[in-house]
């Protein structure tokens, strides 16, 4: 029978074995304490659930193992203890079931020889025989058993440590960061792949390996969200005149001998043009972050997010403020087609002044997008809708409106500057003829 590292909470991914109560070759009875584990949440003795001989210890004291890992093997003792030499060489047969050892606190019968346990606040479990300092500290904070042990062994004063755990608790990583200050500066990477997989080991699922695009998206956007100080501005924009301009332009488009129009504008084409013009009206916001400086760009190079199978990419319309609506429309169609075929050149998707991400076609009313570095802004566009609005004369009328949310990098664009930029965009969309002159 395999003895597994028990699951002691949904968020606990691993545990440290602090000591073994049995040695290889010892006879085991149900309820005998096998080993003691400590995690950020608990310190507990783990009992055996079956009789036999402890044939092998795979994770020695002082080592950490993920939840679900095999830490020891109990062989069938045939009702009596086997000699230690024979027991240490024994191995479980292929037909023996794999049984996870559950802690006594989870509902199993407590071992007769177990020491009494008491519950700390927030359901921490500890054995009173091991005292690594008070669980409750000044100011209402608490420390987990593993954090107290690490602090005691390292001679670290817990009262000088800033907690990062739930309910103001000091956890092991806080003590480790205090002992090694460089750890505190490193970004948290979260649970390991093995730890996450172990949590869902009993759930039907299908693993999907990361391809190069998905991995790049994950790394880039995680870094962007962690390092860029985002703030968000949301506004409603009336688009009745924009829609009218689009319909008139499409109706007037020249046709070839087969009756195909030279272009067919979408609302997104007009929004690209309006965003490019707005950046020209507010040149201080047409900028990117370059670590030790800000680069203010002369032209409005507008990147447009395009959804792909398993990811997305943002090809760039260069100098969009200088191009006609028909040129923007045809260029965008070509870029989107090549993007979906994965045939874009780096020069077609690198750089850019700002990005537009439009989810209106999916019925999304509004959302906030993550900035694509080194850009300093991204405009998220929602779905158009009809709603009642108050007119200047106090009357009520229905208008076609869409919501846009501007995400800004506060290192480049301050609140007032971002508000000025989104106001310029609203004005251009409400009076679209102004972006054509």
How does this model look, in words?
This protein is α+β, with helices and mostly antiparallel strands and 437 residues long. It folds into two domains: 1-207, Beta Barrel (OB fold (Dihydrolipoamide Acetyltransferase, E2P)); 216-435, Chloramphenicol Acetyltransferase (2-Layer Sandwich), CATH 3.30.559.10. It contains ten helices and 24 strands. The protein has helices spanning 84-89, 145-154, 172-179, 181-185, 193-199, 212-227, 240-252, 267-281, 325-340, 415-430; strands spanning 2-4, 14-20, 27-28, 33-38, 43-47, 52-57, 64-66, 70-75, 98-99, 118-119, 125-126, 142-143, 169-170, 230-238, 287-289, 294-296, 302-304, 306-308, 311-313, 316-317, 354-358, 377-381, 385-390, 396-409. Strands 14, 17, 20, 21, 22, 23 and 24 form a seven-stranded mixed sheet that branches. Strand 15 and strand 16 (294-296) form a beta hairpin. The longest helix is centred in the middle third of the chain and has 16 residues, at 212-227. It is elongated, with a radius of gyration of 32 Å. The chain starts with a strand and ends in a 7-residue tail after the last helix. Mean pLDDT is 81; it is low at 79-129 and 182-188.
